[in-house]
Amino acid sequence: EVSGWALATVTPRLRELTLSGATLVTDAGVGAVARACTGLRQIALRQCRSISDAALATLAAHCASLTALDVARCGVVTDRGVSKLAAGCSQLASLQLEGHADVTDASLHALAAGCPKLSLLNLWVCSNVTDAGVAALAQACPNLTSLDVRLCSKVGAVAVSALAAHCPSLTALYTERAGPVDDEAVVRLAAGCPRLALLDLGMQDNLTDAALLAVAERCSQLRSLSVAYCKQLTDAGVSTLVAACPQLSTLDLNNCTLLTQTTLEAIAAHCPRLQSLDLGGQPGSGQRLATDAGLLELAAACHGLRSLNIRYCSDVSAEAVERIKDLLCANVQVRQ
Q: Which residue among 3, 187, 223, 235 is least enclosed by CB atoms within 10 Å?
């Protein structure tokens, strides 16, 4: 355990500090660091349960050069603290706010007004932000490269369209269990953000092959894709996408129940860099994507595969699993 008071005599030349998980660090300790180290650039306080708005206010008052702050799943962080941070730290480029349900659009408007250099924002489980707030942020922060709005049920297609219109450098977007995102929004996203490397569309069950065809046409640098539980997707859409995105290393097709071995054959043919593949289902889901023959073909082609989920894939035998492990030198983690 590291307490904040132990940091009171820290060198004033300190530029980066990581205290994530240090449960004895308090607002007072962070204040001592902020006052002593006014040139601080980065500080990580993730899961420091005693940290609140007061720490953000002190950092804003004393560390004008701050570029990165992680207060994910800390104590109580609200609009009050984020607004002070945005007003005092105009150089801020990375902000992790994961898990703070008291953060609302007011915080996003403050960041839009005060932090034009913002490039990474994590709002996972910030359930009170909305399309309007994200749209305002996108318009004011064109250098945004990564946005996480998972479990933000009020953020959906309108926000994604705003990102497409204003953030051409976006490389990572997480929307699993956010508000509804439709094909039209993904088509706009692919056209406006061709540098996308990571796209999480899990649980967006409105999506069809049209979304994947747009991504395939525009986003050839894609390395990670999740379309888990997107149950309208077919072999045609997924096969086209994997053929167009040879850099894919992570692919999540969990509970995409219309897919068949045709998709598996396309993955084997076009994804030599694949490291993680999720083909799992759930009891009674009718998942027929994974078969012995298809998985053996995959293992022979994707030598870098390290994680394979085939839970509830009833057409896969124990013998095939052992053969897959042999082909991949037993380095693969298979979930059954």
A: 3
CA neighbor of 159 nearest in space, from 102, 108, 208: 108
> Beta 198-200 vs 333-335: how paired, if at all?
unpaired
3-class state of residue 335 by DSSP? strand
**What's the pLDDT at 287?**
64
Amino acid at 208: T
Q: What is the CA radius of gyration of the chain?
A: 22
- What are the φ and ψ backbone dihedral angles of 199, each rounded to 5 degrees? -135, 120
212 touches 233 (CB < 8 A): yes
Token pair, residue 273, equals: 């860099």
pLDDT of residue 321: 84
pLDDT of res. 83: 98
Q: What is the number of other CB atoms lying within 10 angstroms of the CB of residue 40? A: 24
Spans in the chain with pLDDT lower than 70: 1-10, 284-287, 329-336
Do the Cβ atoms of 120 and 97 come closer than 8 Å?
no
The pLDDT assigned to 158 comes to 98
The predicted model scores a pTM of 0.93
Record the tokens describing residue 218, joined without a space. 């525009």
Comparing CA positions, the residue from 247, 253, 252, 246 lying closest to residue 270 is 246
Residue at 314: amino acid letter: S
pLDDT score at 284: 64
Which amino acid appears at position 334 of this protein? V
d(CA 234, CA 87): 48
- Residue spans of alpha helices (H) in the chain: 27-36, 53-62, 79-88, 105-114, 131-140, 157-166, 183-192, 209-218, 235-244, 261-270, 292-301, 318-327
Quote the CA–CA distance of 58 and 66 in Å, as a whole number: 12
Burial class (CB in 10 A: 0-12, 13-18, 19+), 305: buried
Which sign does the torsion angle of CA 186, 189, 195, 200 carry? negative
